[in-house]
Amino acid sequence: MNQKAEKSRYSDEELEEFRVLLQKKLDKAERELEFYTEQMSDLADNPDAKVRGLDDGVGTVESERLSNMAARQRKLIQHLKNALIRIDNKVYGVCRETGRLIAKERLRAVPHATLSIEAKQNRKRTV
């Protein structure tokens, strides 16, 4: 029995490294959401905020675009908060389909990932 056992979770030090990364991304996402929300509020409350010479159709398109971007930010924020909870529970970085650790490179690129690259590719093939 000389085989090295596969790690089942990241160490506390590794988890702390990911916590810092996630918190930075969360702070940035919250600032961006605040920006989109302010932009939507300005468009709704202040007709002079609209670019002069543009018709209401363009304003509607811009409103929808900002609304979609804000919705995406809210979703990202929730994913990042969920990832922080997984760190607290020491299950962060474990693929929810295979149970194996997600590669650090993937987590650095997409810190809220819950699937390994292999599991994600397998899901695409079955869909």
| Count of folded domains | 2
Give the amount of beta strand, in percent.
Answer: under 5%
Topology as H/E string? HHHH
Helix content: 55-70%
The computed structural class is mainly alpha
Could you write a compact summary of the structure shown?
The chain has 127 residues and is mainly alpha-helical. It has helices at 12-45, 56-88, 104-109, 117-126.
Write up what this structure looks like.
The protein has 127 residues and is mainly alpha-helical. It has 2 domains: 81 residues; 33 residues, no CATH class. It contains 4 helices and no strands. α1 runs antiparallel to α2. It starts with 11 loop residues before the first helix and ends with a helix. The mean pLDDT is 87.
Summarize the helices and strands and which ones pair or pack.
Blueprint: H1 12-45, H2 56-88, H3 104-109, H4 117-126
What keywords describe this structure?
127 residues; mainly alpha; 2 domains; 4 helices; elongated
